[in-house]
Amino acid sequence: MRLGIKKNLRFYFVLHSAFANFAKNIIHFFTSRNMMKPNTLALTTLAAVGAAQHATAQMQGRPNVVIVIADDMGYGDVSAYGSSTIRTPNIDRLANEGVCFTDGHATSATSTPSRYGLFTGMYPWKNENAKILPGDAPLIIGTEQFTMPKMFQHVGYETAAIGKWHLGMGVGKIDWNRPISPSGNAVGFDYTCLIAATVDRVPTVYVENGRVVGLTDDDPLFVDYENNFEGEPTALTNPELVKTQWSHGHHDTVVNGIPRIGFMKGGKSAYWKDDEMAEYFLNRVDSFINADRDRPFFLYYGLHEPHVPRTPATQFAGSTRLGPRGDVLVEADWCVGQLMKKLEEAGVAENTIVIFSSDNGPVLDDGYDDGARATADMHDPNGGLRGGKYSLYDAGTRVPMFVYWKGHTRHVVNNSLVSQQDLLASFAQMLGQPTPSALDSEGMMDTFLGKNKRGRKDMIVEASGRLAYRYGQYALIPPYKGKKTNETDIELGNEDDWTLYDLGADKAQQKDISKARPQLLKKLKKRFLKKVGTYYNPDTAAEVLK
């Protein structure tokens, strides 16, 4: 029988303490008999014990950290930036009482590479596997790799990942009926409760600490992304099962009346209920925040809204004029409000830094005919930016970004260039921890806390393997072959020649200044090509949506 989260966490810490004492006794035994050799095992054990002792001495007074990442939420999807067509009062509070970044970016215009950059502090395009993953993909973060949660663990924090994951699990050909290893726990999280990929992909089950929740032995779960299982219905063979109509790509296994990407058989007792997902994960967040502890915590909370399929809980269905997409935006805002309420009730709000952002830019029709396209004239999810999810234009990666720490931050609007990947090096500054020299993350903790307005000088952004360059207020997009748009009708940023935009004067990227500013173009091309080297290939095609 699986332990509940509080018992599970308590068991972990008792075991951790017992191991530390055992290790110290072993070292004492060998050193007292002159048997200790400076081998790797001994050094590793000494380092681990020393780190544990150092962490115990240093963790007093350190703030908790919560990172909330929405899914496909655009710059215009929060009212904090001036939108009058959607109201997000709980998210706005973080902006109005904290640091509001107007040029904050994800590392990528799609989910998997964006989250990879957040957790590792590395540009995702340097990892060839950091692309939109199917639900049965292996874990793409190396178990020996330096990560943000591992760093927090090292100095004594309890760590948890709850919600959307989309970074792979296992090593390939996952057996969902056994413990999955490595899981998210292997990259630095003490506790995990996750969806393996996205809400529109199989398997439609929760995975807690590497085990599928609610699975029974008499109905095993099987997943395949290439071939259907004999006799299993799909949206194409049995359209009468479909309640939420698909528009492109989503016509495989049907669960809860919703056709998904990929094929699945069995495991029915473990299937999630789509319209109850927000509350399900909030309950896990509540349990983690309120777990008995004598040390700070780090929580990654991955919202599933407003990603497709958009299935708001009953209390939010029909609450906006913007259809299901508007309703789940309101639901996401409610989730943030509930999180803040739980922090207050637990008495830890004044000792908790809360960061809110999104994994990438917005999309209206991402595979389901839910009326989102029809709302384009009523609501601009891009907030005046060009492009969106999958795009090299600025709306692909420029996303909402707010940092709030009750009693510590004040309302500051920062127009400097910042990236989610910089959170790792910045928290390393706060914790007094070294980071690998090869990281792309830049430390700027004072910037994130509103003590100054310095930002990045430049950065590379990525969309489906294609690269572009931000330098201050300028955006440089190199030429790429391929279609101008994909199935979502979003402009991908594929142009025949180098294009250059001054975002300070032209936020919507309507005027290419490359011909008018040849010297600037030459300078930025040189800088871009030096940074990316052979990673830039004009023949790189956008990933096929599937």
Structure characterization notes:
This protein has 546 residues and is α/β, with parallel strands linked by helices. It has three domains: 5-58; 64-213 and 269-448, Alkaline Phosphatase, subunit A, CATH 3.40.720; 458-535, Arylsulfatase, C-terminal domain (2-Layer Sandwich). It has helices at residues 5-32, 40-58, 89-96, 111-120, 148-154, 277-289, 323-345, 422-431, 445-448, 518-532; strands at 64-70, 99-101, 104-105, 158-164, 191-195, 206-208, 211-212, 222-224, 254-255, 258-259, 263-265, 297-302, 352-358, 401-405, 412-414, 418-419, 458-463, 466-471, 474-477, 499-502. The strands form five sheets. It has a ten-stranded mixed β-sheet with strand order 7-6-5-4-12-1-13-14-2-15, sandwiched between helices. A hairpin with a 2-residue loop joins strand 17 (458-463) and strand 18 (466-471). It is globular and about 70 Å long. Mean pLDDT is 91; it is low at 1-58.
Sum this structure up briefly:
The protein is α/β, with parallel strands linked by helices and about 550 residues long.
What labels describe this entry?
20 strands; 546 residues; alpha/beta; 4-stranded antiparallel β-sheet; 25% helix; globular
Q: What is the spatial order of strands in the main beta sheet?
A: 7-6-5-4-12-1-13-14-2-15
- In N-to-C order, the SSE pattern is HHEHEEHHEEEEEEEEHEHEEEEHHEEEEH
Q: Any idea of the CATH topology of the largest domain? A: Alkaline Phosphatase, subunit A
Task: State the helical fraction.
Answer: 25-40%
Named CATH architecture of the largest domain: 3-Layer(aba) Sandwich
